[in-house]
Every structure is written in C-alpha cells, then in structure tokens.
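Researcher: Please translate sequence to structure tokens.
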Amino acid sequence: MKKIIYLLVITILMAACSSEPHYVVKGKIEGSDSIIFFLQKREAGKTITIDSAVSKKGSFTIKGGAVDYPQLIQLVAGNTRKRTSFYLENSGIVITGSLDSLFKAKITGSKTQDEYQSFIDSNEPLSEKYSKTYIEYQTASKAGDATKVAEIEKQADSIQTEMINLQKNFVRDNPASYVSPSILGSLSYDMEAEEIESMINAMDSSIAALPQVKSLKERVAVMKTVAVGQKAPGFTMNDVNGNPVALSSKTGSKLLLVDFWAAWCGPCRQENPNVVKVFTEFHKKGFDVFGVSLDQKKEDWVKAIADDKLTWTHVSDLQYWSNAAAKMYAVSSIPANFLLDETGTIIGRNLRGETLYNKVNEVLGGKK
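Model: Translation complete:
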C-alpha cells in the first residue's frame, strides 16, 4: 500500500510539473538534416540565444520554461542568414517550411503570432503597391525623367502615409495585443512625444507594463526636454582634432542648426548639399551649423566632411548609436536636426530641404 501511495504522489507531482506554463516549438523544415536551429532575440542592442536544437531528417523540438509574455523572436538556421520571425509564448508552436525559404515558413499555435500575421496580411496590398512604385521610380530615375520621378515620389509618400495610418489604427484598435508595442516602437521614430504618449496611455495596463513600452515612456520623457520651445541641453564633444567643443560656445549665433548625421548614412549625405546651400547663403547673416556625427571610424567621418564640403564645426565621440548627444536629444534615426535661436531655445526640429531654407529665410532673410 505504501508503494502504491508513493507512486500516486509521484504521478501527481509529474502531472503538476507538466501543467506549468511552458513553450514547445516543433519544426518541420525540409532540407535541414543535422542543422542547429537557434531561438534568438534582440535585447539592449545584443543578440541573445534563448535555446537551440539539432534537426533530424528535417524535424526538431525545442522545449523551454515559461516566458513572461509573448515576445517577437527569430528562428535561425545555424550560422546562416536563413531565419524567420514569430511570437514565442507559452503554447505548442509548429513551424513548417523549407530551409531555402525559411522566411516564408508557416507558423501555428501562437495566438499572438496569429494577430501579427493578420496585421502583416492587412498591410500586404500596400506593401506590394509600394514595391511596384519603387521599381517605377528606379526606371524613371535611370531614364533621367525628372517630371516622372517627382510624380512617383508623391505617390510613394501617399502610400507611406496609408501604411503608417494602418499601423497606427492597429495599435489603437488592439490595446491589449502584445503586437502593438512592437508596431508603436517602429512608428515612434517619426512621431511627436505627445502622440506616442497618447497611444501608450490608451493601452491595456498589462501591455503598458512591458519593458518595450517602459522604454518608449523613457524616450518620451527625453523627447519632451528637446521639444520646440525648450532650451537645448548642453553638451561637449571633441572635434576632428581631438579638441573639446561645447555647444554653448556656438549658441551666440542668431540661428544654430545642431545637425546629427554620419558618413555611412545615405539620406544624410543626400541632405548635406541642402544644408551647405543654406549655410552658404545665410552664414554671414548669423546662421551656423554644429555637426554631430554618429560615425565609428574617424577616417570615414573626416573624409565625408571633406567630400561634402561641410565647412562648419564638427564633433563626435565615435560611439555610433551610443553617441552621448544623440541619446540626450532622443535621436533614433538620422538625419536629424534642431534649430536654435540666439538664446539657445529650440525653434524647429528635423527641418530639411526647402523647409529648412524657408525657415532660415523667414528669420534671417531681411537681415544683413
């Protein structure tokens, strides 16, 4: 009898253990015999491996403990670029596909993944439309048809606006979805602090407590300190000769453009001629530029300054996206800029092309 009771207790304990929240990922990937598959995620700018398994005749199983909340991760095939993304949560998830087209794998068993796939599907028509427009743009550009290029650019802008609105609507319509923070995180690069904050406040309390949303809240707080009407935060960095230069030493100008850029940034290099034009025309009237580079290699930075004929003061700590000033100014994409008046107050943000020219002309156009 004691033995029977003992076995009964063991059985109950085993059943209790197996009922604890956990995930099981089963893969059925054609052409993947003896391939190591990794579950990986990005955290604090680093790639972290969560778990792994070796496939046998195209099949593998990865069992893990509980995840605190559904999170977007990648299934990566060995040391290759073959991968697919999906939401991992405490459930049985099946990934079916081919190694040669892993990014197209079918994923079932995750409620959050189903929501994400629904979002992707709803965005597909606009994505295809944008891809076709881009091909048309390349054709017109190669043909030197400036009129057609301008027309296509307007079409592309219109499609982008539709895509952004679709994404915003998803976040608003799905306040309790674990997909919403990821979408809002991507959108936030081109949003103002007040709009980001409003969308966060509308989220379900369980979603608003996620680390990704907390990071967005922290970013909003920084963004508010560099909003139009605020005094520009001061900082000091070394110039190309290693000499420290303080922002405050430049704020005596009637207008100062604090310009965040990098040699490796294509859009920045395309915008540089516009900044040069404004600098050339208005420098004698009190306009100046303070360039802040997010480069890592000094030689690339210095060469780009010379190649683009950027004749104003430049500084950098050569720390890439960890640039101290970029963090202070909540810069998450470049080119980015802040226009300061002679008191050091921010009067404009992310002014480019004609918009920058018109703003500077508005303030300094009639001055000598």
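Researcher: Any highlights?
Model: Confidence is low (pLDDT under 50) at residues 1-17.
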